[in-house]
What does this fold into?
Amino acid sequence: MKNQDYLYLDHAASTPMRKSALDKYIEAESYGFANSSGGHKLSRDSKNLLEDSREKISELFNAAPGEIVFTSGGTEADNWTIKSLFDSKRPNENLVTSNIEHEAVLASADWVSSNGHQTKFAKSDKNGLVNKNEFLKQIDENTKVASLMWGNNETGVVQPVKEVSKEIKSINSSTLFHSDVVQGIISDNIDFHSSGIESGALSAHKIGGPKGVGAMFINSKYKLPSFLHGGKQELERRAGTVDVPGIAAFAAALEEQQSKFDEEVGLMKDERSIFEEKIKNSLDIKIVGESMNRLPHISNIQFKDINSEVLLIQLDLNGLGVSRGSACASGAQKPSHVLEAMNINPKFINNHLRFSFGWTTQIGDGSKAADIVIKAAEEMI
Amino acid sequence: MRILVAMSGGVDSSVVAAILKEEGHEVIGVTMKLWEGPDGEMPETGCCTASDSEDARKVASKLDIPYYVLDYTESFSKNVVDNFTEMYAQGLTPNPCVECNRSVKFDHFIEQAKKLNCEKVATGHYAKIIKKNNEYELHKADYLDKDQSYVLHMLKSSDLAHISFPLGEISKPDVRQIAARIGLKTAFKKDSQDICFVGKKNYRSFVEKRIDLTSSGEIFDISGKKVGDHNGIHEFTVGQRKGLPGGYETPRYVTKIDVQNKNVTIGEKNDLLVSSFVVEELSCVNNLEYENLTIQTRYNSEDLACDIKKLSDTKILVQLKEPAFGVAPGQFGVIYKGTKVVCGGRISSKVLENVG
It folds into this structure.
């Protein structure tokens, strides 16, 4: 099957680069290839491009340019904020997060606790929502960092980030409030300052930018310790030659995304509801978090009598690409920690698939995807 | 025909995928992930390792066929690994490859293939399926050095209808040649010999890590006289020579393990001769047959002429025409008529008559 005939509904995992981003990448690589830290004209060209990109991105999020630090992606930004503030000389400081966070946050939390700090988890309810009060209850005078994702990457359920940020400072004014907004930026408008987020993780490839590029938003009142040690790049915080063409492409992708935001997200929403309605009418399924406020691009479906490991293959063979839980190195697919945290009945936990729409979604995709799913499922029952 | 091929990453299953693709079939490759370490990583040695599944993926890519990894770890851990440790704890000699085929691999694999609209599954086993009238028979491979019909004895005619063993009539050197001709990287990869989940480690330390086996007992000679003590019956298997009390003119072997009383009996080599024993958990490919039979009591061991007597639907008494060594409770006994597999099951520890 040729790739253009293949229906791609795994945008939450990654998206192709937008043409504007790819064009920008190629253009930037031709004149902005030089090391942006050098002292000659070509370096200055590169440095100018880097700072222009930083400005553009910061404007889109209503932040100051100095509050955007480029990273290799969302995972690095999560690791940076969560790990770098803990110090073994202050072992009583703790971390608060939720049990449905992305692996980048959970594994960083493991690291923090393996270094002797307490890590506290607010639990998700059965709808995939972390209750605001549950989260705030965990915060105490020793909480150094608190981290709550904007929207869950498997269910799409939007978490009470704004509600938490409003009250967190009254419990502990020195707690840094971090949020992984990697999925959030795909289909929600995010303004870090007005949402009370002090540190955020962003990834370029989820919105049509290149892979391997991301950013951390960090409120100007904080200066995090360096994460990679070496030269003085990236506002002296992250060593390593800066990927200027990648960053320029990230900025171009974000600009295009923002200019088409209502149109694109509107389409994701419409196609998702057509998709969900159609399969609901034909199959015995449950939509995870259906009654909740969900990011419009994600649909997590529980199939009553069908193991999704084989269904995923059947869909792939029929030209529809979706995903299950998180993929391990060998490609075997495991049940997700998010569904486990939601106390999904173990009988059905292996019966879930995530369908995620995105910027490449076109009119008709939801209906076409539903037809493929219904046919495959009916053959398997 | 759409065929689901089990690809371990080794040369045999790689060539199976290639042959079927060349024959014009729609081939889908699958690696069964059977075992993983505590952090979900695949083992480093033995078969089914991360690098093996990487090899399988490369072969699938070269053949331009869809390829997937399916997770069998839960069933494998329960049916094969737990069983392996429990059997050692009971002083029995497990055969994890047979256990894997009969409890984990084939049933589930055939079921998944049906869901994917595949007419057949294929594996790289060396064995032959012959259709006679409406029945499917399982036979030894033409290339006897590699014959694996022993580990496949539990497949029934109704299973065989959905299975293809394309290597049944091909020799291993030919398989390697085919692999080299079509440029498969795995052409000269070494055959795996280790138990996949134990790897190169000692299986006893693997067992000891998983269950507490510190239950000491006594060692007796054949006349019933106590000759020593031991730290746990898992340290012994019938036929074992190493690690026994010394001081005899001729070598001593473990001849019997009494699980209940934790006693081990040792004797001379001739005390290991067995002429009749019970095979239980019996599985027949087609109807049971009674004439001109032979038995293999270990993988690829000598064919011993025998008679059988049916004790129940799942139990037979095997009478060897000549007493033989090497009949170990826990191993499988597989009955053949010529090259045809008739039935097979586990050699019982309860009724084992020593002669000698």
